[in-house]
Amino acid sequence: MDANKTEIRTLECKLSVREAAPDAQGESRTITGTAIVFNVESEILDDWGYRFREVIKPEACTMEFLNSQDIKMNMLHDRDLTIARCNQGQGSLRLSVDEKGVNFEFEAPKCDIGDRCLEMVRRGDYSGCSFEFWPEDYDVEERDGGKDVKITHRKFRAITALTIGMDPAYKQTTVNARELWENTPGGKAAKEAAEKAQHEAEEAKRKEEEAKREQEAQEKAEAMKRESARRLRIMSDINDQTF
Question: Which of 12, 121, 172, 236 is positioned for an S-S bond with 177, CB 3.0–4.6 A?
Fold first, then answer.
Protein backbone atom coordinates (compact mmCIF):
# COMPACT_ATOMS: atom_id res chain seq x y z
CA MET A 1 0.00 0.00 0.00
CA ASP A 2 1.39 3.38 -1.05
CA ALA A 3 0.83 6.27 1.37
CA ASN A 4 1.38 8.69 -1.52
CA LYS A 5 -1.64 7.65 -3.56
CA THR A 6 -5.38 7.73 -3.06
CA GLU A 7 -7.02 4.45 -2.10
CA ILE A 8 -10.67 3.66 -2.92
CA ARG A 9 -12.85 1.16 -1.05
CA THR A 10 -16.37 0.24 -2.10
CA LEU A 11 -18.84 -1.11 0.47
CA GLU A 12 -21.96 -3.18 -0.02
CA CYS A 13 -25.09 -1.34 1.05
CA LYS A 14 -28.46 -2.64 2.17
CA LEU A 15 -30.97 -0.51 0.28
CA SER A 16 -34.56 0.13 1.33
CA VAL A 17 -37.34 2.62 0.66
CA ARG A 18 -39.91 3.37 3.33
CA GLU A 19 -43.37 3.99 1.92
CA ALA A 20 -44.86 7.37 2.80
CA ALA A 21 -47.84 7.45 5.13
CA PRO A 22 -51.22 8.12 3.49
CA ASP A 23 -51.29 11.67 4.89
CA ALA A 24 -47.70 12.47 3.86
CA GLN A 25 -47.19 15.64 1.87
CA GLY A 26 -44.81 14.63 -0.91
CA GLU A 27 -41.88 12.25 -0.82
CA SER A 28 -38.74 12.47 1.23
CA ARG A 29 -35.47 13.03 -0.60
CA THR A 30 -33.28 12.04 2.35
CA ILE A 31 -30.62 9.42 1.63
CA THR A 32 -28.82 7.93 4.61
CA GLY A 33 -26.33 5.20 5.21
CA THR A 34 -23.01 4.03 6.60
CA ALA A 35 -19.94 4.86 4.55
CA ILE A 36 -17.15 3.35 6.69
CA VAL A 37 -17.36 0.41 9.09
CA PHE A 38 -15.03 -0.10 12.05
CA ASN A 39 -13.33 -3.29 13.24
CA VAL A 40 -14.65 -5.45 10.38
CA GLU A 41 -12.42 -7.28 7.93
CA SER A 42 -13.06 -6.45 4.29
CA GLU A 43 -13.51 -8.93 1.50
CA ILE A 44 -10.26 -9.87 -0.27
CA LEU A 45 -8.87 -6.82 -2.07
CA ASP A 46 -6.45 -6.90 -5.01
CA ASP A 47 -3.99 -4.08 -5.67
CA TRP A 48 -2.24 -5.07 -8.91
CA GLY A 49 -1.74 -8.65 -7.73
CA TYR A 50 -1.17 -7.79 -4.06
CA ARG A 51 -4.06 -9.51 -2.29
CA PHE A 52 -5.06 -8.45 1.20
CA ARG A 53 -7.85 -7.74 3.65
CA GLU A 54 -8.10 -4.64 5.77
CA VAL A 55 -9.64 -3.34 8.98
CA ILE A 56 -10.35 0.27 9.90
CA LYS A 57 -9.97 1.21 13.56
CA PRO A 58 -12.24 3.87 15.12
CA GLU A 59 -9.28 6.14 15.86
CA ALA A 60 -8.61 6.40 12.12
CA CYS A 61 -11.82 8.30 11.54
CA THR A 62 -13.02 10.43 14.45
CA MET A 63 -15.60 13.19 14.24
CA GLU A 64 -12.86 15.74 14.87
CA PHE A 65 -10.94 14.36 11.90
CA LEU A 66 -13.99 14.38 9.62
CA ASN A 67 -14.73 17.99 10.55
CA SER A 68 -11.26 18.96 9.35
CA GLN A 69 -11.83 17.51 5.87
CA ASP A 70 -13.47 18.64 2.63
CA ILE A 71 -15.55 15.60 1.66
CA LYS A 72 -17.75 15.33 -1.43
CA MET A 73 -20.55 12.83 -1.99
CA ASN A 74 -20.34 11.68 -5.61
CA MET A 75 -22.07 9.19 -7.84
CA LEU A 76 -19.98 6.40 -9.40
CA HIS A 77 -16.64 8.07 -8.51
CA ASP A 78 -17.40 10.93 -10.90
CA ARG A 79 -16.51 14.36 -9.49
CA ASP A 80 -18.82 15.90 -12.08
CA LEU A 81 -21.68 14.11 -10.32
CA THR A 82 -21.29 15.64 -6.86
CA ILE A 83 -24.61 15.64 -4.99
CA ALA A 84 -23.56 16.80 -1.50
CA ARG A 85 -20.56 18.19 0.35
CA CYS A 86 -19.21 18.56 3.89
CA ASN A 87 -16.47 21.18 4.08
CA GLN A 88 -14.89 21.58 7.53
CA GLY A 89 -18.01 20.16 9.17
CA GLN A 90 -20.43 22.41 7.26
CA GLY A 91 -22.57 21.81 4.21
CA SER A 92 -25.31 19.66 2.71
CA LEU A 93 -23.60 16.36 3.62
CA ARG A 94 -24.12 15.53 7.28
CA LEU A 95 -21.69 13.07 8.87
CA SER A 96 -21.75 11.31 12.23
CA VAL A 97 -19.69 8.66 14.00
CA ASP A 98 -20.88 5.86 16.29
CA GLU A 99 -19.39 2.61 17.54
CA LYS A 100 -20.11 0.90 14.22
CA GLY A 101 -18.68 3.43 11.80
CA VAL A 102 -19.19 6.66 9.88
CA ASN A 103 -22.76 7.51 8.89
CA PHE A 104 -23.97 10.02 6.35
CA GLU A 105 -27.18 11.81 5.48
CA PHE A 106 -28.10 14.29 2.76
CA GLU A 107 -31.06 15.58 0.82
CA ALA A 108 -30.92 14.57 -2.84
CA PRO A 109 -30.78 17.88 -4.75
CA LYS A 110 -33.75 18.79 -6.90
CA CYS A 111 -31.98 18.47 -10.22
CA ASP A 112 -31.37 15.75 -12.81
CA ILE A 113 -28.42 14.29 -10.85
CA GLY A 114 -30.32 14.26 -7.56
CA ASP A 115 -33.41 12.73 -9.17
CA ARG A 116 -31.29 10.06 -10.80
CA CYS A 117 -29.50 9.21 -7.55
CA LEU A 118 -32.74 8.98 -5.57
CA GLU A 119 -34.43 6.77 -8.16
CA MET A 120 -31.43 4.43 -8.48
CA VAL A 121 -31.26 4.03 -4.69
CA ARG A 122 -34.98 3.34 -4.47
CA ARG A 123 -34.80 0.76 -7.26
CA GLY A 124 -31.82 -0.94 -5.68
CA ASP A 125 -29.54 -0.42 -8.67
CA TYR A 126 -26.91 1.15 -6.42
CA SER A 127 -25.68 -1.42 -3.92
CA GLY A 128 -22.44 0.08 -2.64
CA CYS A 129 -20.86 3.07 -0.98
CA SER A 130 -17.21 3.96 -1.55
CA PHE A 131 -14.79 6.23 0.25
CA GLU A 132 -11.55 7.67 -1.07
CA PHE A 133 -8.70 8.10 1.41
CA TRP A 134 -4.99 8.67 1.80
CA PRO A 135 -3.47 6.15 4.25
CA GLU A 136 -0.98 7.29 6.86
CA ASP A 137 -0.57 4.97 9.84
CA TYR A 138 -1.30 1.26 9.40
CA ASP A 139 -0.05 -2.18 10.48
CA VAL A 140 0.58 -5.11 8.13
CA GLU A 141 0.10 -8.66 9.43
CA GLU A 142 0.92 -11.75 7.38
CA ARG A 143 -1.16 -14.83 8.13
CA ASP A 144 -1.15 -18.39 6.81
CA GLY A 145 2.45 -18.19 5.67
CA GLY A 146 1.93 -14.90 3.87
CA LYS A 147 -1.05 -16.11 1.86
CA ASP A 148 -3.40 -13.96 3.89
CA VAL A 149 -2.38 -10.36 4.62
CA LYS A 150 -4.33 -8.06 6.94
CA ILE A 151 -3.82 -4.30 6.94
CA THR A 152 -5.12 -2.40 9.97
CA HIS A 153 -5.62 1.33 9.44
CA ARG A 154 -5.08 3.46 12.53
CA LYS A 155 -4.88 6.89 10.92
CA PHE A 156 -5.85 8.46 7.61
CA ARG A 157 -4.03 11.43 6.16
CA ALA A 158 -7.20 12.53 4.37
CA ILE A 159 -10.64 11.42 3.23
CA THR A 160 -11.57 13.21 0.03
CA ALA A 161 -14.85 11.70 -1.16
CA LEU A 162 -17.71 9.32 -0.59
CA THR A 163 -19.46 7.67 -3.51
CA ILE A 164 -22.73 5.83 -3.93
CA GLY A 165 -21.85 2.98 -6.25
CA MET A 166 -21.42 -0.78 -6.49
CA ASP A 167 -19.02 -3.74 -6.02
CA PRO A 168 -18.52 -4.04 -2.27
CA ALA A 169 -15.34 -4.53 -0.29
CA TYR A 170 -17.29 -4.56 2.98
CA LYS A 171 -20.76 -6.00 3.53
CA GLN A 172 -21.76 -4.30 6.78
CA THR A 173 -22.83 -0.93 5.39
CA THR A 174 -26.23 0.52 4.63
CA VAL A 175 -27.77 3.14 2.37
CA ASN A 176 -31.43 4.06 2.68
CA ALA A 177 -33.75 6.39 0.79
CA ARG A 178 -36.40 7.05 3.43
CA GLU A 179 -39.81 8.69 3.36
CA LEU A 180 -40.88 11.24 5.90
CA TRP A 181 -40.42 9.30 9.10
CA GLU A 182 -42.40 11.92 11.02
CA ASN A 183 -45.54 10.32 9.58
CA THR A 184 -44.95 7.05 11.39
CA PRO A 185 -46.14 6.68 15.03
CA GLY A 186 -42.57 6.45 16.30
CA GLY A 187 -41.49 9.34 14.12
CA LYS A 188 -44.37 11.53 15.29
CA ALA A 189 -43.59 10.77 18.93
CA ALA A 190 -39.91 11.55 18.42
CA LYS A 191 -40.74 14.74 16.55
CA GLU A 192 -43.15 15.87 19.28
CA ALA A 193 -40.54 15.12 21.96
CA ALA A 194 -37.92 17.07 20.03
CA GLU A 195 -40.29 20.00 19.48
CA LYS A 196 -41.23 19.98 23.17
CA ALA A 197 -37.59 19.98 24.23
CA GLN A 198 -36.84 22.80 21.80
CA HIS A 199 -39.84 24.79 23.04
CA GLU A 200 -38.79 24.31 26.67
CA ALA A 201 -35.24 25.38 25.84
CA GLU A 202 -36.50 28.46 23.99
CA GLU A 203 -38.89 29.30 26.86
CA ALA A 204 -36.08 28.96 29.42
CA LYS A 205 -33.86 31.19 27.29
CA ARG A 206 -36.69 33.75 26.92
CA LYS A 207 -37.24 33.84 30.69
CA GLU A 208 -33.53 34.18 31.31
CA GLU A 209 -33.27 37.09 28.85
CA GLU A 210 -36.40 38.70 30.35
CA ALA A 211 -34.98 38.41 33.87
CA LYS A 212 -31.73 39.90 32.63
CA ARG A 213 -33.56 42.84 31.04
CA GLU A 214 -35.55 43.41 34.23
CA GLN A 215 -32.38 43.36 36.30
CA GLU A 216 -30.69 45.80 33.92
CA ALA A 217 -33.74 48.07 34.03
CA GLN A 218 -33.80 47.95 37.84
CA GLU A 219 -30.08 48.71 38.05
CA LYS A 220 -30.56 51.59 35.63
CA ALA A 221 -33.47 52.95 37.66
CA GLU A 222 -31.43 52.73 40.88
CA ALA A 223 -28.52 54.44 39.20
CA MET A 224 -30.80 57.25 38.02
CA LYS A 225 -32.27 57.52 41.52
CA ARG A 226 -28.80 57.84 43.04
CA GLU A 227 -27.84 60.42 40.45
CA SER A 228 -30.99 62.41 41.13
CA ALA A 229 -30.28 62.33 44.88
CA ARG A 230 -26.72 63.47 44.26
CA ARG A 231 -27.90 66.44 42.21
CA LEU A 232 -30.43 67.40 44.87
CA ARG A 233 -27.65 67.41 47.48
CA ILE A 234 -25.52 69.62 45.25
CA MET A 235 -28.39 72.06 44.70
CA SER A 236 -29.08 72.09 48.45
CA ASP A 237 -25.42 72.87 49.20
CA ILE A 238 -25.47 75.68 46.65
CA ASN A 239 -28.60 77.21 48.19
CA ASP A 240 -27.09 77.00 51.68
CA GLN A 241 -23.96 78.83 50.50
CA THR A 242 -26.05 81.48 48.76
CA PHE A 243 -28.04 82.33 51.82
Answer: 121
